[in-house]
Amino acid sequence: MRDDRPTALVTCDGTGLLPSVVYYGKHGLIMVGNSAKAHLQSEPTRTIDSAKRYMGRGYDEQLAGQLSHLRLAEPESEADRKVVRFDLGERSVTPVEVSAEILKSLKKSAIDQLTHVGGVVITVPAYFDEAQRQATKDAGRLAGLDVLRLLNEPTAAALAYGLDKNTQGTYAVYDLGGGTFDITILELQDGVFQVRSTGGDSALGGDDFDRVIAARMLEAMGFDPGATVPSDVVALVLSVAREIKHSLSQSTTAEVKLPARGGNEVAFALSRDELATLAAPLLARTELASRRALRDAGLTPAQIEGVILVGGSTRMPAVRAFVEKVFGQVPLTDLDPDLVVAYGAAISAAALSGQGEDVLLLDVLPLSLGVETMGGGVDKILPRNLSIPAGARSTFTTYADNQTGFEVHVVQGERELAQDCRSLARFKITGIPPMPAGMARLEIEFQVDENNLLHVSARETTTGIEQSIDVTPSYGLSEDEIEQMLIDALDHGEQDLEARRVADARVEAERVLLATEKSLRDDASLLDPSELARINTAIADLHAVIERTRLSADVKATHINSRLDELDDATKAWAGRRMNQAIARALGGQQLEQVAHSVEAARGVDAHVHEHEQNRSGRRI
């Protein structure tokens, strides 16, 4: 926070945004952000994006039928079916672990700029259920963060707008990100943020717009609809589709060349109007959720005083035009839709730490919570859109004579049958004396905290027997798995750090090699045979040590850096001669543009070989 206004810290990519992409290389190499995206096409099954969509989901809930380059691991047991795992070949990782790597990267960036990170506020889609929220908390814990609060993303956005503009009234927050969609109706009055209703779709977002474009591309490339497509081709078309989508926010048409089946190239063009047509069915799904949220709040679009846009996908002209049509007004875009949620989280964190203005946030349950009754029905104890923190209790009795126990099955959802809702937890109450049916009384109490996490207690009133549970959803990592991951992180901390140093050094060395080899093609004539032989030997040695890092975990970053030093020494004199040659050309009456190009080329070795000295203290950004 600066001058009571939030500012975005710089990520490892050098901007305020970090792409949620993680690359898992061999020998423990892990990259996050744009450096990870660079591996999408070459190693698609090792490059995980949109993991947020899989948070809290079981294997049987995987997003079947969607175009994806990811490879899911087949479950080996019934327990394995409770969580999605991405197959990397030699091992698998869960969405929680992927998210933890992203949070670790953000934590490192924050520490680099703030020197210390205490408690954090993590934002989540408003329509995340208990399992997805618990998985998010697990990811924060695995990243070594003290999670003060899980804050719904639309609420965070409204917080940023409300405090920034001293806004009053009832607003809709239309949040269309890369992987999820939320719609929230809020009332802002005298510093109190009251959520009236919320809705959405945790499997709808900008990724789906990419998929409809990519499907059109595959047809142009000669793939039949529904045909199996190699993962590298899927990664290619999804990546190009994303670029086209972004460019159509600025231009009215976009055209690219794609490799067709058979080795030829095919031109693919898409207009902004065509994209709007492709997007229409997806946008219609957001309209259904928006109108339902308005109905739950007892409002019409005309009673909404403003619509706040959140999420990068709301930059699309088709989305903005659609929102204007649904709500009958031009949406608010004063704050960056990619950063507004982070601003709200910063405001919330400042308030929780006592450093900012105290704000009362009254959020709501996104989905109803209840228990399964005899016959498979659901008794909803806490209905959706109830303000939280919240609590309620309900009383149940026995179904059969001499029944000595109850099994409590906690579920979440709006369906009437338990089998159609999300199973959160099961526990038993035993030791009840035999009684006629209907005599025993079981009082079940639900308590939901400000993070939307659930505590359940049950008490048999005639005997006083009690049982309680903090609900850790059935879909997610177990406490033992989380603990083991934390132990592994501590036990292998130094090894992990060295692996990161090696990865950074290797990236730097490969960059230097490319620059040096290009310079040799341009100006090898400035070298005598002995100099050329020395440089070629240094290049070969550097290539060799890089290759050894791929084959063995014993190679250290210092080994790479020492070979970089040798190449540095071998090219210093040559770099000077290349600079002198560029200056001589400049004095020969060349145009300014040509001179600049010559000087820049001459600086190639100096700028690329010697720059690595400045980058050894940390990863190149």
Helix content: 25-40%
Which outline best applies?
globular
Number of domains: 4
How is the biggest beta sheet arranged?
6 strands, mixed
Question: What topology does this entry show?
Answer:
Layout lengths: L20 E4 L5 E3 L1 H4 L9 E3 L36 E2 L4 E2 L1 H20 L4 E6 L5 H13 L3 E7 H13 L3 E8 L4 E9 L2 E10 L4 H16 L9 H17 L5 E7 L5 E7 H26 L8 E5 L6 H11 L12 H13 L7 E5 L4 E4 L5 E5 L4 E2 L1 E8 L7 E8 L9 E9 L10 E8 L5 E7 L5 E5 L8 H13 L1 H31 L5 H23 L5 H30 L5 H18 L12
Parallel strand pairs: 6-7, 8-13, 10-14
Antiparallel strand pairs: 1-2, 1-3, 4-5, 8-9, 9-10, 11-12, 14-17, 15-16, 15-19, 18-21, 19-20, 21-22, 22-23
Descriptive terms for the model:
single chain; 621 residues; alpha+beta; Nucleotidyltransferase, domain 5; Actin, Chain A, domain 4; Substrate Binding Domain Of DNAk, Chain A, domain 1; six-stranded mixed β-sheet; four-stranded antiparallel β-sheet; 14 helices; 40% helix; globular; disordered C terminus
